[in-house]
Amino acid sequence: TPDDTRPETAESAALFARALAVTPGGVNSPVRAFNAVGGTPRFVQRASGAFLYDADGREYVDLICSWGPMLLGHAHPGVQAAVQEAVSRGTSYGTPTVPEVELAEEIVVRTPVEKVRFVSSGTEATMSAIRLARGFTGRELVVKFAGCYHGHVDALLAAAGSGLATLSVPGTPGVPVASTAATLVLPYNDPAAVERAFAEHGDEIACVITEASPGNMGVVPPLPGFNKMLAETCARHGALFVSDEVMTGFRVSRSGQWGLDGAREGWTPDLVTFGKVMGGGFPAAAFGGRADVMAMLSPEGPVYQAGTLSGNPVATTAGLATLRLATEEVYAGLDRAAGLLADEVDKALTEAGVAHVVQAGGNMFSAFLLDEPPTTDSVRDFAAASAQNVARYRAFFHAMLDQGVYLPPSAFEAWFLSSAHDDAVLDRVVSALPAAARAAAAV
Ligand code: PMP
């Protein structure tokens, strides 16, 4: 562990020790721990704009952005004001409220969904979408792709098959074999594997669920036409196409990944899941889609789904304020910043002689640090993403952290920017890159 004992992280180390005594692994979501990179996670006490401030008073440029939600940066005054006003009127009533209608209207306007139902996490959104797809079709099989993460839903925590459609086994203890037995895992970006799965099981498949543009194996965007092919194949076989936009929704464009491909190519998903940005930093998520499919949902239809805090007025107010402030100008700025930074990471790694692929999907990007120069110009699936040298990433990560840049503490994650990452902030990141690239080269 490179830096546990250093005085400048003493306070975080002490807090982590206390946390370990009362919480498994000391964290409430696994990747916040530094298990993949070693060392002590920094306990953050406050955040503002593009910066995090830890318990030892150190400042970091934040390239996690709460794993996606903080599109406008931390403590945005417009979002803060809306939230404070909402809190002053009480925090939860268990009745319908105005902000949830307004947020639903905003989502329906921006995206291909006709109706939307709110939940509190991305996990709940994908779990409910799959239940609805199964209820609507009367079928049980779910197709997912290796390396795509859809939250900790039993049926979706399935190990990867090996290039073939295999009925899958659970990827974690505690998930009954029966829960994943109806899940088919296919390699990502592989239309032939999709065709084969449908040729064999076409009339049993309830839905295909995919990250709209994967960010949970590092950033591995869909090859041109892949999402379209999924939508068309599902339609041909009476299955539903579920596009998981929990990460990409309202982040890569004002209408998410669909705004970058579906709207242009002329296809629509049957169901879409959202989370992260639409909650503005609060626990809010949603699933939505075709009106006839959504009509199956309780109390209109027979498929049950519910939640005590679903559509919470504070969370939906934060989400609504965030979406209203996320103008075309914000997205243009994010695209530009991501392009610039991705180029600089590429340049620094090249100059240090580290074999790598830097890959972007919209304004999300990540770097794959490798042992050998890549044989293809892109990383297209989980097998290729897994060829990373994670020890090189570990060295890169800690060198950046030492210089005050907080990257995701795992090589299998997207890097996130916000509209608060201005040129001065980007310069700070850029100036830290050469030393980090040299540290990665030394591994
Ligand atoms: N789907 C995707 C694409 C995600 O990235 C995530 C979370 N990273 C989830 C679902 C699950 O969301 P949550 O963590 O809010 O349950």
TrEMBL record:
Where, subcellularly, is it found?
A: Cytoplasm
Task: Give the EC number(s) listed in the UniProt record.
Answer: 5.4.3.8
One GO-annotated biological process of the protein:
protoporphyrinogen IX biosynthetic process
Tell me one GO molecular function of this protein: glutamate-1-semialdehyde 2,1-aminomutase activity
Coarse class of the protein's main subcellular location: cytoplasm
One Pfam family it belongs to: Aminotran_3
Q: Which GO terms describe its cellular component?
A: cytoplasm
Q: Which residue positions does N6-(pyridoxal phosphate)lysine occur at? A: K276
Substrates-to-products reaction catalysed: (S)-4-amino-5-oxopentanoate = 5-aminolevulinate
Cited CDD domains: OAT_like (cd00610)
Q: Which cofactors, by name? A: pyridoxal 5'-phosphate
Q: InterPro entries recorded for this chain?
A: 4pyrrol_synth_GluAld_NH2Trfase, Aminotrans_3, Aminotrans_3_PPA_site, PyrdxlP-dep_Trfase, PyrdxlP-dep_Trfase_major, PyrdxlP-dep_Trfase_small
Look up the domain of life of the source: Bacteria
- Keywords for this protein: Cytoplasm, Isomerase, Porphyrin biosynthesis, Pyridoxal phosphate
Q: In which pathway does it act?
A: Porphyrin-containing compound metabolism; protoporphyrin-IX biosynthesis; 5-aminolevulinate from L-glutamyl-tRNA(Glu): step 2/2
Instruction: Show the Gene3D superfamilies listed in the entry.
Output: Aspartate Aminotransferase, domain 1 (3.90.1150.10), Type I PLP-dependent aspartate aminotransferase-like (Major domain) (3.40.640.10)
Q: What PANTHER family does the database record attribute to this sequence? A: GLUTAMATE-1-SEMIALDEHYDE 2,1-AMINOMUTASE, GLUTAMATE-1-SEMIALDEHYDE 2,1-AMINOMUTASE 1, CHLOROPLASTIC-RELATED
Per the similarity annotation, which family is this?
A: Belongs to the class-III pyridoxal-phosphate-dependent aminotransferase family. HemL subfamily.
Quaternary structure, per UniProt, is:
Homodimer.
User: What is the protein name stated in its UniProt record?
Assistant: Glutamate-1-semialdehyde 2,1-aminomutase
Organism ancestry = Bacteria, Bacillati, Actinomycetota, Actinomycetes, Propionibacteriales
Give me the gene this protein comes from.
Answer: hemL
